[in-house]
Amino acid sequence: MLLVVFLLLSLSRCYLASGIDSGQASSIIGEADNSVRATFAAVAEAEAAGANVSSLSARLDEAGKALSAANVAFRLGDYENASLFAEQCLSIMEGVGSEAKGLKASAEVARQNQLILSAAFSSVGLSVLFVAGLFGWRSLKARFVRRALKMKPEEAVEA
Amino acid sequence: MISLGDFRILYFASCVLLGLVIVGPTLALVVSFPAGERFSELYLLGPGHMAEGYPFNVQAGTEYSVVLGAVNHMGGMQYYIVYAKLRNQTEPLPNATAATPSPLEPLLEYRMFLRDGQVWEKTVVFALEQVSFDGNSCGIAKLRIDSNAFNVSKLAVWDQASRGFYCQLFFEMWIYNATVSGFQFHNRFVGNWLNVTRGF
């Protein structure tokens, strides 16, 4: 059953792809190109925000290969394959942009939380340092003075 | 013995230093430090993955390979295209001074998305096809790269000084500029001279 569906899909794809002229191929390649550019921008922003974009980058690579193949096929005058590769590129890109935006938002929240946590630890640390520093200075100063008072004055030795 | 004044300075300087150590991680999250030089690499190696053994004396119908590589040091993810082009001795290379690409039409292209520090490599397999010799000229009708056959129709004239029919397979690097929403020549190109010879 699955095989039949697959064959029907393949046949319909072949039927749709046949008879494609340069204008149609160029249009779909342009669409794929725009989609890749927009997705790249979203993924790059997510990466800059500190998100792990390894999987998205791999999909971008796949889409880039398909787009290159589409452009090469177009230059060779093979408009059918050009449009098929461009369609393949578009299907790979599906959902990547929104996933990148989601990752960017999560990365920004994580970064903000990290900043808040870090600032809180720093504030507590600085407060402790301030109080301990003052008390420490008092005790050290007292010890220093006691030690100084215990010292005997040295006599100058005349030659 | 150290004086009380000196001891006080030493003590409070230590406290300030310790304070900086405590605040350091928070500062690192907020303050951005100046980045180093930003650039991209494009390189071409021989089939043995070394800067030697490049194909030079080539014959029609024989496959040769070179390793093409790119590295991103731009400080963030970048989108590159590398175009493969073929020229004879009279056709122009890109102009590195004016940062303009070669006006020749690209044959093959490689698109890549590289994160900062990421390396991309590809073994490029090519073969000249339908090569003809006529006196002092050599015609190359087709160039096959990675199983794609391109009609190139190049004419290489006999070079008396270097004694050969020369053409050059070269690669240009372009980078996507989000500000202008387009690709710009990145002023990097590498090439490999080929001396087209008759088969024995």
Descriptive key words:
heterodimer, A: 159 residues, mainly alpha, rod-shaped, B: 200 residues, Immunoglobulin-like, 10 strands
Word description of this protein:
The complex is a heterodimer of chains A (159) and B (200). Chain A has one domain (18-150). Helix content of chain A is 85%, strand content 0%. Chain A has helices at 2-17, 22-48, 54-75, 79-93, 96-150. In chain A, helix 2 (22-48) packs antiparallel against helix 3 (54-75), helix 2 (22-48) runs parallel beside helix 5 and helix 3 (54-75) runs antiparallel to helix 4 (79-93). The longest helix of chain A has 55 residues, at 96-150. Chain A is rod-shaped. With 200 residues, chain B is mainly beta. Chain B folds into two domains: 1-33; 39-197, Immunoglobulins (Immunoglobulin-like). Chain B has one helix at 4-30, and strands at residues 39-45, 57-59, 64-73, 78-88, 108-114, 119-134, 137-145, 148-159, 164-177, 182-197. The mean pLDDT of chain B is 93. Classes of the chains: A mainly alpha (159), B mainly beta (200). Chains A and B meet through helix 2, helix 3 and helix 5 of A and helix 1, strand 4, strand 5 and strand 8 of B.
